[in-house]
Amino acid sequence: KSLIGFIFSIGGLFIMAILFGPSAVVLGLLSLNKISKDPKHLKGTGFAIASVIIGIIDIIAVFILLIIPPP
């Protein structure tokens, strides 16, 4: 899940941020929750954190582009 969330967050930077941004945040948070329950067997904390951060950037970028129209 963390790798998929990371891929969604990167994809959201380039295409369909309004769809991929929130999906990346949700998948990243789910992954962090699952990893925290069993950290010895589950890896991918870095990908999960990155997907949450980049997903939030995707969401903020969408709102900025909706508020400030291009010239």
List the defining traits of the structure above.
3 helices; mainly alpha; 71 residues
Description:
The chain is an all-alpha fold. The chain has helices at residues 2-14, 17-37, 45-67. It is elongated and about 50 Å long. The mean pLDDT is 89.
Strand share of the residues? under 5%
Counting helices, strands and paired strands, the structural category is mainly alpha
User: How many runs of DSSP E, i.e. beta strands?
Assistant: 0
Q: Describe the sheet with the most strands.
A: none
Give the CA-based shape: elongated
The helix content, as a percent range, equals: over 70%
Short description:
The chain is mainly alpha-helical. 80% of the residues lie in helices and 0% in strands. The longest helix is centred in the C-terminal third of the chain and has 23 residues, at 45-67.
Give the SSE layout.
Layout: H1 2-14, H2 17-37, H3 45-67
